[in-house]
UniProtKB/TrEMBL annotation:
GO cellular component: plasma membrane
Entry keyword set: Disulfide bond, Hydrolase, NAD, Transferase
Name of the gene encoding the protein in the UniProt record: LOC102078110
Protein name: ADP-ribosyl cyclase/cyclic ADP-ribose hydrolase
GO molecular function: NAD+ nucleosidase activity, cyclic ADP-ribose generating; phosphorus-oxygen lyase activity; transferase activity
PANTHER family assigned: ADP-RIBOSYL CYCLASE, ADP-RIBOSYL CYCLASE_CYCLIC ADP-RIBOSE HYDROLASE
Length: 263
């Protein structure tokens, strides 16, 4: 076989080995990244055994088809770090993630969202999945949110949203968007999972804050909010206020503004 051919084949084999090594390194780095992120965020809370929580987390999806991870798979994790009722501080949201967390990051004295709790915090904005026959955690090549309902990420958020709503109490706040044509969308997690779990035996009132940005097309008079009121458990009172994004940001910037005076 000519020298040139031998060099070509050798080069091809070398390239293939580099590719396989790169892929497996990438997968290993991916698992190490999510694990180190999980631990660094978990350790900030100083209230749980982070290794135990990580092991319970992995058990939910590792070595499983990533489209066959039901919400119940996360029950042991939720049971190990149950959500605490934080009456009159709990905030829910829909399509307003950045505005809400911009506020709660600065005003933990006033409001707490699911993503401000231990379990919500350690996995916020992360992607993960497993696959049959592998004991690894993957952070790439996982199903998209809408690709299959029982994917590891969506099942975690559906299960944790339910558990967080189950402990909602006192005056509950919900921040909705005035920039979309249906602020209360029946298919959203807020509408389909959380609101149905607000019970009058615990929740006294739901205060909706409609975030009004420059491009606002909806407000508290939007018809979908009538659906929200009607879906509330009997006995839970309701209010809605149109609040400018700038006012919400001001409440975050000025801790001297009392929680109840933010809007
Ligand atoms: O009360 C909040 C909070 O408790 C959360 O856990 O659930 C409630 C918000 O859910 P929601 O009403 O469905 O609101 P959103 O804004 O549609 O989506 C909530 C979260 O699910 C977001 O983190 C979304 O991810 P993203 O887009 O910010 O990276 C995620 N999500 C919803 N639909 C999605 C999706 N992610 C990807 N594709 C989709 N189709």
């Amino acid at each position: 076989m000519g020298l040139c051919k031998k060099l070509l084949i050798g080069g091809g084999i070398t390239a293939l080995i580099i590719l396989i090594l790169g892929l497996s390194l990438g997968l290993t780095v991916g698992r190490r990244n999510i694990r180190s992120t999980f631990f660094s965020r978990c350790e900030k809370f100083k209230e749980h055994d982070c290794k135990k929580l990580w092991d319970l987390f992995e058990k939910a999806y590792v070595n499983k088809d990533p489209c066959k991870v039901p919400v119940e798979a996360y029950n042991p994790l939720i049971a190990a770090a149950p959500f605490k009722p934080q009456c009159n501080k709990m905030m829910f949201w829909s399509k307003t993630k950045d505005v809400v967390h911009g506020l709660t990051a600065k005003r933990k004295d006033c409001f707490v969202t699911l993503e401000d709790t231990l379990l919500g915090s350690v996995l916020d904005d992360l992607t993960w999945c497993g696959k049959e026959g592998s004991k690894d955690t993957f952070t790439a090549g996982c199903p998209e949110w809408s690709e299959c309902v029982n994917n590891p990420v969506r099942s975690f958020w559906n299960r944790s949203s339910a558990a967080f709503a189950d402990v909602a109490c006192g005056d509950v706040t919900a921040m909705l968007s005035g920039s979309i044509d249906t602020p209360f969308n029946s298919t959203s997690n807020f509408a389909s999972i959380e609101v149905p779990r607000f019970k009058a035996s615990r929740v006294k009132k739901l205060n909706v804050v409609m975030v009004i940005q420059k491009n606002a097309i909806s407000n508290c008079n939007h018809p979908s909010l009538k659906n929200l009121r009607q879906s509330l458990d009997t006995g839970i009172t309701y209010s809605c206020k149109d609040v400018s994004e700038s006012r919400i940001q001001e409440c975050g910037a000025k801790p001297e503004i009392a929680c109840g005076a933010c809007w």
